[in-house]
Amino acid sequence: MNYISSPYAIQMLLPILYFSLIIFSLCNIFLSHRHKQKILFILTESVIVFFYSILLIGCLTCLDEKDISKLGCLSSFAASIPISVDFTLCSLFTLLNLFIIILLIQSRKNTLSKMSIKEAFDDLPSGICFYEESGVTRLVNRKMNDLSIKITGECLLNGKKFISILADKNIREMSDANQKDEEYIISLDNQVYSFKQIEHQLSDKCLYEIIASDITRNHQLSMELSKKNKELSTFNKRMKQYGETIEEMTIEKETLVAKMNIHDKLGNLLILSRQSFNKNITKEEKEKLLTAWKNTIIAFESMKENESNDSYDELFKAAQAIGIQIHFSGNRPESRKAKKLTIKAVIECMTNTIKHAKGNQVYVSFKERQRFLDIQITNNGEQPKEEIKEAGGLSSLRSLIEREGGSMKINSSPRFEMNITIEKGDPTHDR
Description:
alpha+beta; Beta-Lactamase; Heat Shock Protein 90; 3 domains; 5-stranded antiparallel sheet; 13 helices
């Protein structure tokens, strides 16, 4: 049974099916052209389907087999083909078009097109915009447009205008890390965004890029860190003030104890001296009494120097008054704390040189080591007969040095030697 001898319903159905195939093929041609695919194969298949469909549609003019002679040779050939062949060809063409669609889909997944690039660009979590020097935008993704609408109330059409609006809403000063880069921090709906403008120098013109990133979490952490740093700075200042107060109280306490000791010694000496006037004493007892008076006077003068002495000139004057010569070698410290510790250490060694070593020369050497200063103090007096025990002035000196973060070591053999290590400090801040 051919097309002409088939029932009327089949005669109407078959052309409709082929006409649908024509539309199907035209869609495939359009899609292949849009995605820059080779369309020769698809075009050939579509032409075959088109012409064959036209022939079948032309057969509709024939009502029965007697009218076949009215048709052309091609239409006559089409009308004489068995109906089973027509439906088979229709099925094959349908499958072929489906196969072509699958190929186009796969090709689209594996091939970058303009649309695929734009879609990927729009799916980025960060906002991106490219614009020319005149301000005209060339490429803007969906995220950047959304941010522009929230900030300006309109889509991003002019990059230069958008940057000027960002500069007005900026909540942080512009970063000067890179002269070609500009960064603006914008607070928007409880979120913080960083807008960074980058200049790209092309061969013949400049192209500007704007990148918007959500830095809400980082901004919160930065603000919390800044707050904690301020609190820590305030706490450190209070602790420093507290430490200075403790130091002053300690010095006052030590001074008071020293005054009380000298007072007791003076009282005892006065009693002994009064008793010596009422009776005859030996020459040896007189020398012991004179030595006691001399040591007490030296201690009294030393205490006065501790209270008022804050310069090397005063230190030399005090040393000259008690018959001591001081010899410095190296660079003397000029920061307030280092100078204070040095002078106190030298005064203590001067006192002990007269009292115990019977010397008149004190040698002080300074050696710098990074941010530390090593101080060595010796004298020309007698070698200590036994290991020096720290008490009174030496104990107080050690406590003072250690509170300032330094260290002190005393050697008794082969000669007296005091080694002190302290921080040099910054004279510009201490003066």
